[in-house]
From TrEMBL, chain A:
One of its GO terms (molecular function) is heme binding. The chain crosses the membrane at residues 12-36, 56-78, 90-107, 114-134, 149-176, 201-224, 239-258, 265-283. InterPro entries: Cyt_c_assembly, Cyt_c_biogenesis_CcsA, Cyt_c_biogenesis_CcsA/CcmC. GO terms for cellular component: plasma membrane. It comes from freshwater metagenome. This is Unannotated protein. The lineage of its organism: unclassified sequences, metagenomes, ecological metagenomes. It is found in: Membrane. One of its GO terms (biological process) is cytochrome complex assembly. Keywords: Cytochrome c-type biogenesis, Membrane, Transmembrane, Transmembrane helix. It is a multi-pass membrane protein. It holds the Pfam family Cytochrom_C_asm. Residues 84-291 form the Cytochrome c assembly protein domain.
UniProtKB/TrEMBL annotation, chain B:
Residues 23-476 form the ResB-like domain. The chain crosses the membrane at residues 80-97, 166-187, 424-443. GO terms for biological process: cytochrome complex assembly. GO terms for cellular component: membrane. It is a multi-pass membrane protein. PANTHER family: CYTOCHROME C BIOGENESIS PROTEIN CCS1, CHLOROPLASTIC (PTHR31566:SF0). It comes from freshwater metagenome. It is found in: Membrane. Coiled coil: none annotated. This is Unannotated protein. Keywords: Cytochrome c-type biogenesis, Membrane, Transmembrane, Transmembrane helix.
Length: 296, 485
């Protein structure tokens, strides 16, 4: 097969994954919407009615992950390199890391309830990627030709996936917290974990990826030393990576040493996560500096 | 001065020091450093893109002057940015060093005494089976540090958490030291050389050079680099570069036997602590300028600066030896195309169908005015334009006062030469920082106590996890199970 054939196959992989995630989206939506209809005088709940639908959602998520993985690998094969050369490729790999983080959480922490927001976020990412960001498969520009590309970018993308997941959980925390402090949880949210569990889960995800993110920044610095002759130059991308790092460090400190919990910690986590997204979107698309590999 | 005011000063100094080295201050300083870094990503920075800064000054002179007073164009070397990070640095040292000594003292120490009231602890349970000896065996098997006093055992695990934590914070100090050392004792410079030319590492060979503040000797490693060949490969459909390969002959020191080397974007040359990077490339058209009588007044390769991805390049040719002086503003187009909107431009970065466009000026070049001049720009304030011409390869244009011939071209490369003696410390700091982080974030720190009831009616077991990390409950359950046999 030629390199364009592989690129086409990769695109089909993306489309198929999007179909699967759409099914997962509907399955999870049904699960959430109808899960607690059998309410008897608001005391007894039946959660089993939509279990089937939730199971379908999970299967579709895993299948979608596999198709997406294949698409990302084929994209790399078509260009004979790691598939991280422009913003389209960062986005599909980012979506892959995000779904991967969700499936990991599914297995480790039973977070199926996150299925709906995860499906929405992945569909939005892939949709933007294939329509706005799409670029034909092409070789790398010389500055990107380095082993450090594989190391630095994969660490950054995985961190991004987990940061995004932590943000989803922190946002869920804040929404449920608002309900609980006013009218009580609505029916669809009864099945979701307690605020305490959400709070702990957010912390654990952040504590888990913070070293990886630190590593991603350091690998970037080592690469910058090899490519540009300085390991740190306050380029906008570097500056925002640093800001993200500081924000998450502040989050960890606020929890561990000052004892912040709950609402304040969740807001800080959302803030830290948005600095990451800002870096990705703003600096890639509108920013200047040397990290302008978006291909836009 | 009376003793009491002296005491006052001393105690307020101590108070200040305690405030500065408190966790809260460090956190605020850390966040402040993050915020302080933001403007540098919004406004153009002199250290990165001086041209953009001067453009900003042209477009918004008033705002620019105001922003400049706030150091918005030199954020990362501004007094306020330095102030934040120096304070953070001091705060970090002031708080981490005492903790380190504290921690070192604790290496051989036994865990603290078993508290009297165990049922206040987070996890508390009782058992009537088993003995303290069984508990001790279990603790030893699981590598707890233990202290046994008659009717109780106090056990502790997770010493590595604080070790990792301190290692991390000490590594941050090492990184800051490395950064400081590099900026004080390093050097950095740029030199553009045409392929075929030799670069000798002395200050006058550089286009731009800056030395660290404490770099007193200002001697450079005496090497030389001759660029023998440069090959750029481009993607045929998009015109995007796919490879740059510079072949050089190096001699270290100058005059010794030359060795051939290849430099690529991600693989610099190394001369002990100095590295040489391939940073940018472009074209220098080869021109000959003759006066009316046909005498050669200027001949050579003139470095032009690329303006776009297809290497449409502009530059200036200055011929002071003519009467009146002659200057040419030129544009070199490697693969020529023209439309009404953009005029002449290049459609591909390789030289396939080159043109040299010149506008010809006569008058005073202003070279003797004493003001420093860019070699890439012509100061036309005292000059008059007398013509405009698009030259094909080997074509000669006669402009009355003389003639210009477009003889050919040669590629040029921009070498960036950097000496940074501090970076090894920064790298070591970074590696230790990650190790420390992993140790600290993935070690659980907890204490477990086992105590016989005074009336021998049973054994109490209790535990406390630092930072309420989970897992202690199941650990205690497994200890109790073991004791129950
Ligand atoms: C004066 C300055 C600082 C002090 C006194 C300080 C103190 C501490 C303390 C007490 C802990 C808690 C460790 C534990 O209880 O297990 C900690 C953890 C930590 N510190 Fe700092 N710190 C300082 C500055 C910084 C800076 C500048 C950073 C980097 C951005 C940083 C990053 C961290 C991280 C990532 C942790 C781990 C959090 C955790 O244990 O979950 N610290 N620090």
């Amino acid at each position: 097969m030629s390199s364009t054939d592989y690129a086409y196959l990769s695109n089909y992989g993306i489309y198929s994954a999007m179909v699967l995630f759409t099914i997962a989206f509907f399955a999870h939506a049904v699960e959430v919407a109808f899960s607690v209809r059998n309410v008897e005088e608001k005391t007894k709940f039946d959660f089993t009615r939509t279990k089937r639908s939730g199971d379908i959602g999970t299967v579709m998520m895993v299948l979608g992950f596999i198709f997406l993985l294949a698409a990302v690998i084929l994209r790399g094969v078509s260009a004979s390199r790691v598939p991280w050369g422009n913003m389209y490729e960062f986005s599909i790999t980012g979506a892959l890391a995000f779904t991967g983080a969700y499936i990991f959480g599914l297995w480790k922490y039973k977070i199926r309830w996150l299925g709906l927001p995860v499906a929405i976020a992945v569909l939005l990412t892939l949709g933007t990627a294939i329509t706005i960001l799409y670029r034909p498969s092409a070789p790398l520009v010389p500055a990107l030709k380095s082993t450090w590309l594989a190391i630095h970018v994969s660490a950054a993308i995985i961190s991004g996936g987990v940061f995004l997941l932590a943000n989803c959980i922190a946002a869920t925390y804040l929404i449920l917290d608002r309900y609980e402090s006013t009218s009580g949880r609505p029916a669809w949210a009864l099945k979701l974990p307690s605020l305490d569990v959400l709070d702990q889960l957010t912390y654990r995800l952040v504590a888990f990826v913070f070293p990886l993110w630190t590593f991603a920044v350091i690998a970037g610095a080592i690469w910058a030393e090899a490519a540009w002759g300085r390991y740190w130059g306050w380029d906008p991308k570097e500056t925002w990576a640093f800001i993200t790092w500081v924000a998450y460090a502040a989050y960890l400190h606020a929890r561990v040493t000052i004892g912040w919990r709950g609402r304040k910690a969740a807001w800080l986590c959302l803030f830290a996560g948005s600095t990451f997204l800002f870096n990705y979107v703003y600096v890639n698309v509108w920013g200047s500096g040397r990290h302008t590999y978006s291909g836009l | 001065m009376s003793t009491s005011t002296e005491l006052d000063t001393r105690s307020s100094l101590r108070w200040l020091w305690r405030q500065l080295t408190s966790m809260r201050t460090a956190l605020i300083l850390l966040l402040l450093l993050g915020f302080a870094a933001i403007p540098g990503s919004i406004f153009p920075q002199r250290s990165q893109n001086p041209l953009k800064v001067s453009d900003y000054f042209k477009s918004y002179p008033g705002t620019a002057k105001f922003l400049d007073q706030l150091n918005m164009f030199d954020v990362y070397s501004s007094p306020w940015f330095s102030a934040v990070y120096i304070l953070l640095f001091i705060s970090l040292i002031g708080c981490v060093l005492p903790r380190t000594f504290e921690h070192l003292k604790g290496i051989g120490a036994k865990p603290p005494l078993t508290p009297r009231n165990l049922n206040r602890m987070e996890f508390h349970t009782e058992t009537n089976l088993g003995t303290l000896d069984q508990a001790e065996t279990w603790f030893r098997k699981h590598h707890f540090r233990i202290r046994r006093d008659g009717d109780s055992i106090s056990a502790e695990k997770g010493f590595m958490r604080e070790t990792g934590n301190l290692l991390f914070h000490l590594s941050l100090i090492l990184i800051l030291v490395g950064v400081g050392f590099g900026s004080l004792f390093g050097m950095k410079g740029d030199a553009i050389i045409n392929v075929g030319e030799r670069f000798i590492n002395i200050p006058t060979s550089y286009d731009v050079i800056s030395f660290g503040k404490l770099q007193t000797e200002k001697t450079l490693n005496p090497f030389s680099i001759t660029a023998t060949d440069f090959k750029a490969t481009y993607d045929l459909t998009t015109g995007a570069p796919s490879d740059y390969k510079l072949t050089v002959n190096i001699a270290d020191p100058v005059g010794s036997k030359e060795i051939s080397k290849v430099v690529r974007v991600n693989s610099p040359l190394t001369f002990s602590s100095t590295k040489v990077y391939l940073q940018a490339n472009g074209y220098s058209p080869l021109v000959t300028v003759r006066d009316k009588s046909g005498e050669v007044k200027y001949q050579g390769a003139v470095i032009f600066l690329p303006q776009d991805g297809n290497l449409t390049s502009i530059g200036a040719i200055k011929v002071p030896d003519m009467q009146p002086q002659v200057g040419l503003i030129g544009s070199f187009v490697p693969t020529f195309a023209r439309n009404s909107e953009r005029g002449a431009f290049s459609t591909y970065p390789e030289v396939l169908d080159p043109r040299l466009l010149v506008s010809i000026w006569i008058g005073d070049l202003g070279l003797d005015s004493g003001n420093p001049q860019s070699i890439y720009r012509l100061d036309t304030s005292d000059m008059k334009r007398i013509g405009l011409k698009t030259l094909k390869l080997h074509e000669t244009h006669n402009f009355g006062e003389g003639s210009i011939t477009f003889e050919g071209w040669t590629p040029w490369v921009n070498l960036q030469i950097v000496k940074d003696p501090g970076k090894i410390y920064a790298l070591l700091g970074a590696i230790f920082a990650i190790l420390g982080l992993l140790m600290s974030l993935f070690t659980r720190s907890r204490r477990i106590w086992v105590k016989e009831r005074a009336d021998k009616s049973g054994i109490e077991v209790a535990g406390l996890a630092k930072n309420s990390t989970p897992g202690l409950e199941s650990e205690i359950a497994s200890l109790v199970n073991e004791m129950r046999g």
